[in-house]
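Long-time lurker, first post. I've been practising inverse folding by hand and with some scripts of my own, and I keep getting stuck on stretches where the structure tokens seem ambiguous. Below is the full token string for one chain I'm working on. Before anyone asks, I'm not after the true native sequence, just a reasonable design that respects the backbone. If someone could post their per-position residues I'd love to compare against what I wrote down in my notebook.
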């Protein structure tokens, strides 16, 4: 039980057994989502209610851990870390149902992919925080896919710009908070890389680099969609010519 709650448990290292467990776990969940996509389309209300319940439970598990170990502070629990904010947005979206919010959730949620590929400060899989991590980041990854099945959600270039602007506001607020209380939101203080850059350069590199990254992702997605649509149209035309 101590290891399940141990605040000093060794962190995940890239390529170790815990990292592999996380990667296998998200792969299984993605496989299940695509396997049951018809059922997701048939029961959208029930699926979205399930998403809401998982989101709330994840937030309770995360907060409960910090309460149990006595570290529920802004600097230790980091309740405004970006993926946790995305979880709050998913909860809010269940009630407000704004199309632009789905766009922001998708683009901000790209960081969840990065967390699985390059885990930084992540607890082991058999740990309360590890379970919380897996629930949160898996939820963020599958949410846009489920929205796509339910209402045809597609990440847009406009959505990328909206996400970039809102991210710039978020990053600015987090930087001010870090300077005020010594927290480490968005790893601006204790950085996983680029430690030699001074603070202003690192800040603006994040702000503009990530905004540009959102737009690049949007362009790639639309290129892929257009490619498959063109290929499908070509196949249909070929079939029509054959029938004639």
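-- Answer (accepted) --
I ran through it position by position. Result:
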């Amino acid at each position: 039980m101590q290891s399940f709650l141990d605040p000093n448990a060794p962190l995940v290292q890239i390529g170790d057994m815990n990292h592999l467990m996380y990667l296998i776990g998200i792969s299984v969940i993605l496989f299940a989502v695509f396997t049951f996509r018809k059922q997701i389309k048939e029961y959208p209300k029930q699926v979205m209610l399930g998403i809401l319940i998982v989101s709330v439970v994840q937030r309770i598990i995360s907060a409960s851990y910090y309460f149990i170990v006595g570290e529920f502070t802004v600097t230790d629990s980091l309740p405004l870390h970006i993926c946790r904010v995305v979880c709050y947005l998913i909860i809010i979206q269940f009630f407000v149902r704004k199309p632009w919010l789905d766009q922001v959730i998708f683009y901000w949620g790209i960081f969840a992919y990065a967390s699985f590929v390059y885990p930084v400060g992540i607890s082991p899989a058999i740990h309360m925080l590890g379970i919380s991590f897996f629930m949160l980041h898996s939820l963020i990854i599958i949410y846009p896919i489920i929205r796509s099945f339910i209402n045809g959600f597609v990440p847009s270039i406009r959505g990328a710009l909206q996400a970039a602007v809102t991210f710039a506001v978020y990053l600015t607020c987090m930087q001010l908070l870090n300077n005020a209380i010594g927290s480490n939101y968005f790893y601006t203080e204790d950085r996983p890389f680029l430690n030699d850059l001074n603070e202003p350069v690192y800040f603006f590199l994040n702000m503009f680099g990530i905004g540009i990254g959102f737009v690049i992702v949007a362009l790639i997605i639309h290129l892929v969609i257009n490619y498959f649509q063109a290929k499908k149209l070509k196949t249909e035309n070929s079939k029509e010519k054959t029938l004639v």
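A couple of notes from the structure itself: The radius of gyration is 20 Å. Residues 154-243 form one domain. Happy to go over any region you disagree with.
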